[in-house]
Amino acid sequence: xxxxxxxxxxxxxxxxxxxxxxxxxxxxxxxxxxxxxxxxxxxxxxxxxxxxxxxxxxxxxxxxxxxxxxxxxxxxxxxxxxxxxxxxxxxxxxxxxxxxxxxxxxxxxxxxxxxxxxxxxxxxxxxxxxxxxxxxxxxxxxxxxxxxxxxxxxxxxxxxxxxxxxxxxxxxxxxxxxxxxxxxxxxxxxxxxxxxxxxxxxxxxxxxxxxxxxxxxxxxxxxxxxxxxxxx
Length: 232
Ligand SMILES: [Zn+2]
What we know:
By secondary structure, the protein is of the alpha/beta class. It is built from 7 helices and 9 strands.
């Protein structure tokens, strides 16, 4: 069948490996996660970045299910269940990082005492309890390579031998850790939890709030996501 020129070029514009990707906004308005060194709740960082990631993925021809963007409380088990119902090929949970209390120092911002840490950088988490562990790890590594090629650096502070940390590294160079977080365990598809940076770090918090930073982070995720799923 001969296609009209317009539809032929439309077909050519579609990516070879279009996927359905669930982008999960970590936390909710009612339980917004960490608080930045300047007092900004993590949820707002997560939502802004998740929306940019979704925009980039859609631009690359993928179908995107954005979970939790309305800020309503979505349980940790329903999140990957929504992804499964949409037949998602990948579950990506977007977060911004903190540190254990012993690594925090007090300072004052606008007359209010806040907490900060000197840890800085992104990290990625995958779970061996996820049935698609190998594919999850491959996607986390692909995302990390794209981040590093754009100048982002990973943090190793989750290896600290203290309560709440001591996470085993799957890939030290790429900052990919193993952790059995509920959203990763309950996902039936490959699943990655992305901590985009440490908002308790005074520099990271400012950088991560900039649209230009979000753009670079989202480009990295979008560049990696389609490719890692297409790999055998
Ligand atoms: Zn979080």
